[in-house]
Amino acid sequence: MKAILLSAQNNAKAVVKFVADGYGVPQEDILGNSRDFRIAFARHMAMYLTRELSGEPLSNIGRYFKRNHSSVIHAVQRIQKLRAHNPAIARDIDSMLANIKKTYNV
Question: Residue 2 falls within a domain, yes or no?
Fold first, then answer.
């Protein structure tokens, strides 16, 4: 079951903050256009977590991240694949999801 945190925009803001803190990447960079690996990975993670937590339509998530829905699809699929094959990333995701849920009492 998908949990709804606040509004779609507030949900994404909260996720971006957690991901930025977790990966040591500035929030502005996650929302920017950089293709640097660290920043792009953090952006993909933030899109994935936003989708997991909110169940928002891909177009709404893309709008917040200034991307189109196909970019969100790519990000979600990439993180799903990494999660399935990389236990460290799976732990990061589980930890961030738990922390966000705990912080927002979801």
Answer: no
Residue ranges making up the domain that contains 51? 8-103
User: For the whole prediction, is pTM greater than 0.85?
Assistant: yes
Q: What is the CATH number of the domain that holds 99?
A: 1.10.1750.10
**In residues, how long is the chain?**
106
Reported as a single tens digit per residue, the pLDDT across 5-27 is 445 567 899 999 999 999 999 99
What is the domain count for the chain?
Answer: 1
14-53 b/e (C-beta count within 10 Å ≥ 16 → b): bbbebbbeebebeeebbbeebeeeebbbbbbbbbbbbbbb
Q: Are 19 and 96 in contact (CB under 8 A)?
A: yes
- Asked whether the beta carbons of 34 and 40 are under 8 A apart, the reply is yes
